[in-house]
Amino acid sequence: MSRFAPIKPSKIKAGSLESSYKFGFHTSTDKYAFKSGKGLSMKVVEDISSLKDEPKWMRRNRLTGYQVFKDKQMPEWGADLSSIHFDDIYYYLKPTNKEGKNWEDVPLEIKKTFDKLGIPEAEQKTLSGVKAQFDSEVIYGSIKKMLSDKGVVFLGMDEGLRKYPDLVREYFSSLIPTGDNKFAALNTAVWSGGSFVYVPKNVDVGLPLQAYFRINSPNAGQFERTLIIADEGSKVHYVEGCTAPAFSDGSLHSAVVEIFVKKGATVQYTTVQNWYKNVYNLVTKRARVEEEGRMVWTDFNMGSKVTMKYPGFILAGKGAIGETLSMAMAGAGQQLDTGSKAIHLAPYTSSTIISKSISKGGGRTSYRGMVNIGPKAHHSKSKVVCDALILDPQSRSDTYPTNKIFNSDVTLEHEASVSRIGEEQLFYLMSRGISENEAGKMIVQGFADPLIKKLPMEYAVEMNRLIDLEMTGSVG
Amino acid sequence: MAGKTKMIKIINKPGKYQFILDHEGQELEVTGKFSLTGKQVGRWDVEIIHAAPNTTSKTNVKGVVDGSGRAFVNGIIKVLSSAVGTEAFLEERILLVSENAKAEATPNLEIETDEVHCSHAATVGKIDEEEIFYLQSRGIKSDQAKEMIAEGFLL
Asked: Are A406 and B102 in contact (CB < 8 Å)?
């Protein structure tokens, strides 16, 4: 709808959701190695554990998770989750019996999917290692030999548990306990897949490690569990991408990601989330940063029906640094409730949270964040900047920051602004002969650009393309 | 009401405040100031609702916390979908004078339409060492310097 045309309410046409989503295809689930029945019960949890032949402690862990999940109330804040039907979801879907080390080992139909998504191609060109997860299981994994020789471990979480049981036991659930929230408890009960990364002391994993998550079945639940341990002085960049087919029934994605950044280490965790617009994306992500360590979350959310995600960092060592760069774009029928949590526990720590959101076509974006500077965190600094762009009168944007300061020797700044595309900016570009649509796109891209710049080049190109696709014909 | 700014001052009075701008073109300016000492706890809830078109609001809350005082400042601007052309600004600034002072600042925004310009800012911090040093170099004792700076902060 043009701003220079008479104002009339825009209607969302049925079927308009599919039009711009190019990852909407799916593969038949008939040949799956195992499918759990619909719904969640103690038996489902026990079945998953026996199928995976896990140690006893993990089985107990799962059962505790199940109990906590049942006991906890649904969160009453944030997005409306009332239309998630927990009884209609398949909690465990195993597409194949083994993880391939070559793409040839991957069943043809699944391989086709990943070919369409361009994963094997990207792997050759720009990545250090790849994990591909299809519904509940990791079906492909690789890592460059040079890195595995240096001792870098990049495994599916299940394999990680088999090969490094002590390491996993030491860290698993230690940062995000089972009772952290209802969905973390659900993940603990039925988790499957995800990545296990260990980077030894002083090793720099040059190119990014990528995990690719694909939901394939209707009503599927994907509950991956990721554990990243970056030992002293090491450096790693982990990227995850997510897509799902276009089904009318909603799927549930509920991951737990725990990251340990040791003394002087650097971890960057990038998410490019482009779920189909019927997926509930309820994710818990947290990092613990030791002395002089640095954690960077780059969190891009474009897809899903509802996203509630607040990647956080606990700055536990002197001089630790945490950074979150978060971008959300919500269109028709979407609610993206994102933000970040910064917990300062040690002196001289600093955190930066930059959030940009775009709402259009009746979509709703919310920034929800928390900065907590504890009594021992003297000389700490925190800066939070939230900018929101609203493209039409039907859309909505909220900002809910909480700043808790328990120490006088700190500086905390918070800024936020909400506006629409400036009339003058649009007019300026149009007076140069650029159409209104193009001008709107340029302004939105310029708005998101400072964050997109932080991505590796290939992803930056992809992000720009996604924004372009989302914005086509929508600027008003 | 158009063109006439309504000014409201809240000095050292914790509590819940709600302002609704429901006439077209209404303008509102809210100024809140407080200082807490000893074991005082102060809680401010300020809610500004823009319900009519072309309304303007400016809210500014400033406070100094001394001793082991605790300040809670919870501000919210709501712009309803009927309130096109809204301009709103919310500012929360808190100065922590003593080591044990604590503060919580929550500036919220809920925006339901597009033709708006809303922003907020919050800062929590301590007195700049250099400001104290400057005053000390003029022969003022550090305690008194702190008092002067805190006083100036609230002006």
From this structure: yes
Residues B85/A419, Cβ–Cβ less than 8 Å: no
CB atoms A411 and B123 under 8 Å: yes
Domains in chain A: boundaries: 19-309
**Contact by Cβ (8 Å): A224, A93:** no
Q: What's the predicted TM-score (pTM) here?
A: 0.87
CA torsion angle B46 B51 B88 A401 (round to 10): 50
pLDDT tens sequence across B9-68: 988 888 999 999 999 999 999 999 999 999 999 999 999 999 999 999 999 999 999 999
Which B residues in the span 73-92 are in contact with A, Cβ-Cβ below 8 Å?
A: 81, 84
Chain B: give the shortest CA distance to residue A349, in Å: 15
Sign of CA dihedral A270, A272, A273, A275: negative
Question: Is residue B58 within 8 Å of residue B75, measured between CB atoms?
Answer: no
Q: What is the pLDDT of residues A165-191, one digit of tens each?
A: 999 999 999 999 999 999 999 999 999
ipTM: 0.79
pLDDT, tens digit, for every residue of A250-278? 789 999 999 999 999 999 999 988 888 88
What pLDDT sits at residue B3? 54
Which helix (H) or strand (E) segment is B21 a member of?
A: strand B15-21
Instruction: With cut-offs at 50, 70 and 90, classify the pLDDT of residue A195.
Output: very high
Query: SS3 string of A275-326?
Result: CCCCEEEEEEEEEEECCCCEEEEEEEECCCCEEEECCEEEECCCCCEEEEEE
| Residue type at position A366 | S
Hey, what amino acid is at A439?
A: A
